[in-house]
Here is the input.
Amino acid sequence: MTYPVTRMRRLRMNETIRRMVRETHLSPSHFIYPMFVCPGTGIKKEISSMPDNYHWSVDTLVEEARSVKALGIPGILLFGIPKGKDEQGSSAYDDHGPVQEACRALKREIKDLMLITDVCLCEYTSHGHCGLVQGEEILNDPTLDLLAKMALSHAKAGADIIAPSDMMDGRVAAIRTILDRNGYSNTPILSYAVKYASGYYGPFREAAESAPAFGDRRSHQMDPANVREAIREVELDIDEGADILMVKPAGPYLDVIRMLRERTPIPLAAYQVSGEYSALVAAGRLGWLDLPRVMIESLTGIRRAGADIILTYFAKEASKLL
Ligand SMILES: [Zn+2]
Here is the structure.
């Protein structure tokens, strides 16, 4: 049947009918809200390149996390801003680091909020790299022990899900092994399996104070041009024991999310990163884009591509709109 018998516009005539035939749904339960925790008390310091995102001390973070949960968002992703940094990133596996203290306080104060902790050394090393460094090289194997120690320290403090973002080879297995040996066999691993070396991380570097002192992250993160390589990363991480896999960034890599959705039954997360967020917020402030509208459209696109979970700085604002 063709026009005039078939008229596609019949099912678009009003919002009620559009809602009946809508294929992709977005709800606060799909979101995870990333948050940055620093030492001190009473701190809520805005990150200038990421408007309306803050460095929180543990006390203010707990209050904010309460409002996140009240919006129906199931969990938060925690990044730490430590007091001190050194070449080994030793503040990353300090049981009294900001992430560990935040986990303990959140577990004590708030019920049923999933605490996901980022595991990588770049926020904690003086050189800003994701692992131990020798000359200009980021060392893989010696870094695994430190990442595993960091993961265990988070789990002991109350982290519900461990999320390694470092992109070292073998880190999921190293983390799974140390968690299982220490009684945390029920703690899932959300692996940043498919993490591209992206310019969209720019604002995050300010947020996490983690810009590398020399070089870049291209020797461990993926080349933005590659998609077959994502299949290998994903297969390796599943074999090593990952429970959920992530694609990062999200918006520029929707084809990768779709391809993985069709190839693997494992839950998929996608991270709408700082640059995706800040670009839309900036255009909204200039009056060039209708921010609430493109916010929902960008998140719907990520869901439509096949993501089960979206990590997004829009989590709170989008939840208010839905
Ligand atoms: Zn890193």
